[in-house]
Amino acid sequence: MVTSLPLRIAFFGTPDFAVPTLQKLIDSRHDLVAVVSQPDRPRGRGQQEQPTPTKVAATRAGVAVLQPARIRDEAFLRAVRDLSLDLAVVAAYGKILPDDLLAIPRLGMINVHASLLPAYRGAAPVHRAVIDGCRETGITIMRVAHELDAGPMLATAVRAIEDDETSAEVEQSLADIGGELLLEVVERIAGGTAHEEPQDHAKATYAHKLTKSEGTIDWTLPAARIHNLVRGLQPWPLVSAHLGDRRYLLHRTRRTGERAHAPAGTIVSASGDVLAVAAGDGEVLRILELQPEGRRVMSAREFLAGRPLAIGAQFRS
Fold first, then answer.
1. Alpha-carbon distance 13 to 250, whole Å?
2. pTM of the model
3. In angstroms, how far is the first alpha carbon of the chain from the final one?
4. How far apart, in whole angstroms, are the C-alpha atoms of residue 32 and residue 206?
5. Tens digit of pLDDT per residue, the chain (317 long)?
């Protein structure tokens, strides 16, 4: 039986990852008084300005949306103070929140972070975990502090990472887990039963923002490393490779455990639905899905049906 009063909450978040958490708050008994998102920006081929995913969800629910160009702007801070907040929730807002803002809600600010802290603090925790070949990741609900992702933890949830899962798939799953876990924590805070556990800062690691240059493949790397890069650099920047004068984006690969005595990047099989390439350690890596630049994504079978490849042809960076 719920005995605590509902909280007045503001939500800070911008991309798709933040939407499940936002929706949980919209559907909860608590009073979601505002959503703060980064400004709308041009997207797609036509570069038309598009509303952020959280703005779309908030507008549909009739929740006020604030989109400050500068998070430190005094007019914005005054507007947040006028909300008389009990609590603020953050999920992938995309900017560092200043101390003046952190001090406004009566019960502080809490964050939905997509890693098992203190590992993978920073901008790209899911992608870095997949790239590093981690077997598990998770969600941490923590209190927002001055230092990035370093505040005390209020709850965690663990999720396994399967061998062939992409970072996009893992992130979507974590978004759903984060929404559920966040609501549990909010109820504990409302009821005065929340427990905070300090992070072990000595074990902290940092998940740097992805860069476009990371997508340039080096076929001399071991098959495991190439496979993890293909999985982890999704949906952007994606791993790319050249064959002849054409550039291709690799969307899915699979390790085979088979060996080939061939130079790195050499095609060792190209028939039916099997397109296989030798990696730098001699292991054969299957390419399951790829995309000729400017074209649609194709399965290996679709690709080979229209482009017969010779055994011995060589992919390059």
1. 30
2. 0.95
3. 61
4. 32
5. 567 899 999 999 999 999 999 999 999 999 999 999 999 988 766 778 899 999 999 999 999 999 999 999 999 999 999 999 999 999 999 999 999 999 999 999 999 999 999 999 999 999 999 999 999 999 999 999 999 999 999 999 999 999 999 999 999 999 999 999 999 999 999 999 999 999 999 999 999 999 999 999 999 999 999 999 999 999 999 999 999 999 999 999 999 999 999 999 999 999 999 999 999 999 999 999 999 999 999 999 999 998 889 999 999 98
Looking at the chain, how many residues does it have? 317
What is d(CA 101, CA 109) in angstroms, rounded to the nearest whole number? 9
User: Domains in the chain and their CATH numbers?
Assistant: 8-207 (3.40.50.170), 212-306 (3.10.25.10)
Q: Is 300 helix (H, G, I), strand (E, B) or coil?
A: helix
Look at residues 74, 77, 96, 194 and name the one whose alpha carbon lies nearest to residue 145.
96
Residue 139 sits at φ, ψ, to 5 deg, of: -120, 140
